[in-house]
Amino acid sequence: MKYIILLFIIFLLILSCCRVVPQNNEGLIETLGKYSKTVKAGLVLIIPFIQRMRRVSLAMFPAEISKYSIITKDNAEITTSLTLNYLVTDSYKYFYNNTDSVKSMVELIRGHLRDIIGRMDLNDALGSTSKINTQLADAIGDLTDLYGIRVVRVNIDELLPSAEIQKAMDKQLTADREKIAAIEKAEGEAKNIELTTKAKNDALIATAKAKAEAVKTEADAEAYRIQQIQNSLATASEGYFKNQSLESFNKLAEGPNNLIVVNKDDLTNLGELPAAAKVWQKATTDK
């Protein structure tokens, strides 16, 4: 019975000497309360009651920085919240250099974000989230090394102005939209008037051109007709003109007047015409 108890005590002693460090963890060995060494994942032997081991996870952790207020350069209050991912790069610094390295890291990020946004106007801050993320990551990159932590990713989830500022911005936005709409309407009406006037002017010009072309065509046709007549007359024979004269005389003779038309060359032989002789005798008798 004594041997069994002794073996049980030895087993407990051996068991108390064994520690297991899980994967992606490190162990910090303390001897009489003082750090002595860092061990990797696996089975670790320690001296019971003299040494102890503290485990530190090297896995990536997500963290959320809840909403808090920041004042911009133009004294506007905005509310922001962030999310980030970090991991422990130095377990000794993480555990021994600070009583709460994560809290210190969060406060460091808060302070740098206040500094970055505090140097920006409200409009610049609201429209530069990506730029702020980059500046913040650059600013805290080396400083968190003091705590044995590396921030892998930091992202601003929201950046909102106060309720009063939001109302003022909404009113300004509405006024700007109404102004733009009024300008666009006026420009549209002016453009419509311009196009209508241009269309009317184009129509008047087209009508005037058409009339001018018609007059020119008619004048060209008349000139062509006269030219053709002149050409024909220039080449006509003497018989043609005599024939034309006879036709004219016939038309005059058909009239109601006692009119006799003769060629100028036949005036000397006028007395030989019987009709002319009778007319002459009647005129003499009447006298």
List the helices and strands and how they pair.
Elements: H1 2-17, E1 18-21, E2 25-31, E3 34-39, E4 42-45, E5 51-57, E6 61-71, E7 77-88, H2 91-96, H3 101-118, H4 122-126, H5 129-140, E8 149-161, H6 163-235, H7 238-253, H8 274-286
Antiparallel strand pairs: 1-4, 2-3, 2-5, 6-7, 7-8
Helix pairs in contact: 3-5
Number of helices in the DSSP assignment: 8
Number of domain modules:
4
Strand coverage percent = 15-25%
Q: What is the tally of beta strands?
A: 8
Q: Order of strands side by side in the largest beta sheet?
A: 3-2-5
The fold-level CATH name of the largest domain is: Tetrahydropterin Synthase, Chain A
Write a structural description.
The chain has 287 residues and is α+β, with helices and mostly antiparallel strands. It has four domains: 56 residues, no CATH class; 101 residues, Tetrahydropterin Synthase, Chain A; 66 residues; 49 residues, no CATH class. Helix content is 55%, strand content 22%. It has eight helices and eight strands, in the order H-E-E-E-E-E-E-E-H-H-H-H-E-H-H-H. It has a three-stranded antiparallel beta sheet. The longest helix is centred in the last third of the chain and has 73 residues.
